[in-house]
Design a protein that fits this description.
CATH class of the largest domain: Mainly Alpha
Number of helices: 10
Strand content: 5-15%
Distance between the termini: 25 Å
Order of helices and strands: EHEHEEHHHHHHHH
Helix content: 55-70%
Number of strands: 4
Shape: globular
Length: 208
């Protein structure tokens, strides 16, 4: 059985969706860097950075980083089709996963925690940073839509690792609202993902 450390409306929701699609048994532990408690202390022993998601495998291996966890699950449960069995398509899926984590996640980190980047700045300077990072994030999602949204890797009707991660990460920092205006077809595809029975069930359980 897996153990998943996570929090409501966080990146761990994507991993829980993937576990559901894989039909894998798991134990959920409420834990994060911003919520004190027994779960946080258990997480700290496994991951000093207190990152969520953190996934512990049945044999005790500790996995972090959303893309790496999704790739592991895709390899562990090939029947779930989180990753394609076609080498070229799989390579494009890995490219898309890396794009989200390297670009969108990075911008969201600035938006959520501007004080980490400008510790000595005043409030107006931090607000300006957030505005710029938000503009950058929205542009990154436009690019994702243009590059991956109509490509062979994008299958909202049969979601895999890429679709799951995009479904969750696009819900933050006004990205969905922006995409509805500038990339309506891609926004509609994200709504198709939202309605998938397993994705919807996990979303509702975790506060979305």
């Amino acid at each position: 059985m897996f153990t998943l450390f996570g929090a409501h409306r966080s990146g761990s929701v994507a991993i829980e969706m993937a576990l559901a699609l894989c039909g894998a048994e798991y134990r959920w532990v409420a834990a994060s860097s911003w919520e004190e408690g027994a779960g946080q202390e258990e997480l700290r022993r496994l991951n000093p950075l207190l990152q969520v998601p953190t996934l512990v495998t049945a044999d005790g291996a500790v996995l972090t980083e959303s893309a790496a966890i999704l790739i592991h699950l895709g390899l562990e449960f090939p029947h779930a089709r989180l990753l394609s069995r076609d080498p070229l398509e799989c390579a494009q899926q890995l490219r898309a996963l890396t794009y989200i984590t390297a670009n969108c996640y990075a911008s969201i980190g600035v938006i959520d925690y501007p004080e980490r980047w400008l510790p000595d700045a005043d409030e107006d300077q931090r607000k300006a940073l957030v505005v710029g990072a938000t503009r950058n994030l929205h542009s990154q999602w436009e690019t994702f839509s243009d590059v991956f949204g109509s490509a062979v890797v994008w299958h909202p009707e049969a979601p895999g690792a890429v679709e799951i991660l995009a479904c969750v990460v696009s819900r933050w920092s006004g990205a969905r609202e922006h995409l509805k205006t500038v990339r309506p077809a891609f926004h509609a595809a994200l709504e198709v993902l939202d309605r998938h029975p397993l994705i919807l069930a996990v979303s509702q359980r975790r506060g979305w």
